[in-house]
């Protein structure tokens, strides 16, 4: 996994093209660390993409074949690796953009789902393929898929492991947009430019409120929203936004 920082954007490139950028537990742990280290003072966004023809083919099947562990050991391993990816992705205050350059299968699909934005090349293929190897959706899949695509569609994807294209992924809400392959770079660049013009700390607070309230009742959700908004009122970004509006200029975040 290659990680670079440039002009406020941290780019993570899954760099095992010979294995279709499949995830090992070690790679999942490294990805969780990247999310944990991202900070609004240093980064406007984290971008995920893959080297070669795939975004990620999901979990490394060869490493699964060699694995010998008890259910208790498996729980600890999954919690500390793929589980941490979800925890850090949902809690980091920096927006995550999945630049889905190719096939996103299994955990690859789930990583795109857990990202705040997902832009896919039209040639990309998706599959919630866990069932094909006798597993349930992980890396947040069982939690996020019903919220993104609806309950019945999530069941269809999880129970069949069917493959589908980027346009269908966009239609069902799994990705924001499917674009011609040649337009992927420019589309993501435009999104990053927009995010760079917005106050990252405020985005982080909004992200925190949205994620914390995914499973809350409306009274609890409203109280939490009120609490986070009160924190936003105290930020310099809010002060600058109000001043810019009153002075008829663009804010400088």
What key attributes describe this structure?
253 residues, alpha/beta, 2-enoyl-CoA Hydratase, Chain A, domain 1, Lyase 2-enoyl-coa Hydratase, Chain  A, domain 2, 2 domains, 6-stranded mixed β-sheet, 10 strands, 50% helix
Topology readout:
Elements lengths: L1 E5 L2 E6 L10 H13 L7 E6 L3 E3 L4 H5 L5 H10 L1 H10 L4 E5 L2 E3 L1 H8 L2 E5 L3 E3 L13 H9 L1 H10 L2 E3 H7 L4 E3 L4 H14 L2 H13 L5 H16 L2 H12 L6
Parallel strand pairs: 2-3, 3-5, 4-6, 5-7, 6-8, 7-10
Antiparallel strand pairs: 1-2, 8-9
Structure overview:
- By secondary structure, this protein is α/β, with parallel strands linked by helices.
- It has two domains: 2-196, 2-enoyl-CoA Hydratase, Chain A, domain 1; 199-247, Orthogonal Bundle (Lyase 2-enoyl-coa Hydratase, Chain  A, domain 2).
- Helices cover 50% and strands 17% of the residues.
- The protein contains twelve helices and ten strands.
- The chain has helices at 25-37, 61-65, 71-80, 82-91, 107-114, 141-149, 151-160, 166-172, 184-197, 200-212, 218-233, 236-247; strands at 2-6, 9-14, 45-50, 54-56, 96-100, 103-105, 117-121, 125-127, 163-165, 177-179.
- A six-stranded mixed sheet has the order 1-2-3-5-7-10, sandwiched between helices. Strands 4-6-8-9 form a four-stranded mixed sheet.
- α1 links the parallel β2 (9-14) and β3.
- α1 runs parallel beside α4, α5 (107-114) packs across α6 and α10 runs antiparallel to α11 (218-233).
- The protein is globular, with a radius of gyration of 19 Å.
- The protein starts with a strand and ends in a 6-residue tail after the last helix.
């Amino acid at each position: 996994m290659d990680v670079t920082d440039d002009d406020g954007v941290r780019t993570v490139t899954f760099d095992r093209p010979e294995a279709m950028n499949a995830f090992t537990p070690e790679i999942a742990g490294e990805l969780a660390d990247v999310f944990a280290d991202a900070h609004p003072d240093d980064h406007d966004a984290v971008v995920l993409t893959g080297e070669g023809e795939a975004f990620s083919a999901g979990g490394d099947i060869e490493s699964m074949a060699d694995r010998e562990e008890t259910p208790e050991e498996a729980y600890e391993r999954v919690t500390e690796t793929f589980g941490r990816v979800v925890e850090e992705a949902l809690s980091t205050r920096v927006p995550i953009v999945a630049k889905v350059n190719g096939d996103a299968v299994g955990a690859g699909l789930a990583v795109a789902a857990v990202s705040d934005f997902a832009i896919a090349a039209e040639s990309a293929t998706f599959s919630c393929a866990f069932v094909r190897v006798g597993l349930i959706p992980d890396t947040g899949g069982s939690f996020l898929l019903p919220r993104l695509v609806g309950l019945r569609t999530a069941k269809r994807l999880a129970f069949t492991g069917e493959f589908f294209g980027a346009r269908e992924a966009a239609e069902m809400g799994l990705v924001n947009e499917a674009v011609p392959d040649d337009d992927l770079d420019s589309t993501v660049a435009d999104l990053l430019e927009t995010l760079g013009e917005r106050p990252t700390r405020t985005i982080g607070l909004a992200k925190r409120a949205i994620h914390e309230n995914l499973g809350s009742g409306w009274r609890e959700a409203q109280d939490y929203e009120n609490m986070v908004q009160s924190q936003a009122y105290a930020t310099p970004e809010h002060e600058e936004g109000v001043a810019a509006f009153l002075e008829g200029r663009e804010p400088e975040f």
